[in-house]
Design brief:
This protein has 259 residues and is an alpha/beta fold. It folds into two domains: 2-76, Ubiquitin-like (UB roll) (Roll), CATH 3.10.20; 94-259, no CATH class. It is 26% helix and 20% strand. Strands 2-1-5-3-4 form a five-stranded mixed beta sheet, with no helix packed on it. A four-stranded parallel beta sheet has the order 7-6-8-9, sandwiched between helices. A three-stranded antiparallel beta sheet has the order 10-11-12, with no helix packed on it.
Length: 259
Amino acid sequence: MKSHLTIRFYGELNDFLDREDRQRDLDSWFYGIRSVKDLIESFSVPHVEVDLILVNGDSVGFEHIVGDGDRVSVYPRFCSVDIDGAAKIQRSEQGESRFVLDVHLGTLARYLRIMGFDADYDSRRDDPEIARIAYEEDRILLTRDRRLLMRSSVERGRIIRNKYPILQAAEVIERFGLCGKIRPFTRCIQCNGIIESLHIDSEEYREIEGQIPPGVKSWCSEYQRCRGCGKIYWRGSHYDNMAKLTDRITEVCAGSRKI
């Protein structure tokens, strides 16, 4: 028996729809049993972008089975709704500031690390490996490939809308409410490890002193080292450039300028 229902997507979920299907009720016909998750993703909307689902006015989870004549309303995260008894999709918040990025977002990964966020990235990974890391390590998966976010093992993620890395970084920070958690130069841009201070009178400094150019030692007395890969940092021109980049991203988040 063929069933029919009406579905509508709200807010930024319309980004995934064809222009003629945005901001309006859509008809859907189907046979047999269908979950609301399968229904939503049949419109190419990744389930991880959804925060609230109403079926005939009642909030439901992704496992809910839709029926003939149902009216389905689908809302993105942070969409402003005030509906008595409505419950958002339950997701773990443990890895709220921890990310894993697909192979096409290397520059974004670097920018997030500069801002102090845990951004796991490796250009050699394939999609199954990225999805596995997101699931096993409870990381937010960032990608521009909606099919990657439709994998059943992926619980949290974001399709990156912007094309340019600075705007992408601002998008991520705004989307996950991270403006107050920016801690520049606390993550290694090379390996994502934690950066710690290195005192020049310490044994650790004496072990790596030979790696520092003589010209740098003549004027610099403050150093940092990554716990992971051992990379050494100091406040040179490269540091100043990263500081300027951090300021630009922060300004975009605040809406004070356009890039």
